[in-house]
Amino acid sequence: MTGLIFLAIFGVVFGSLGIAAGIYLQKHPCDK
């Protein structure tokens, strides 16, 4: 049960970070 909760929290945090990174990259495109 604790492992499931940990995975859920980790998924939410990682997902929000991914969305924030996507918005940041869209606002600030880097030429590489």
Structure description:
There is one protein chain. This protein is mainly α and 32 residues long. It has one domain (1-31). The chain has 1 helix and no strands. The termini are far apart. The mean pLDDT is 86.
Overall, the morphology is rod-shaped
How many structural domains? 1
Residue share in helix: over 70%
Largest sheet: none
Structural class: mainly alpha
Q: Compute the number of strand runs.
A: 0
Mean pLDDT: 86
Topology:
Elements: H1 2-27
Give a short overview.
This protein is mainly α. It contains 1 helix and no strands. The longest helix is centred in the middle third of the chain and has 26 residues, at 2-27.
Keywords:
rod-shaped, mainly alpha
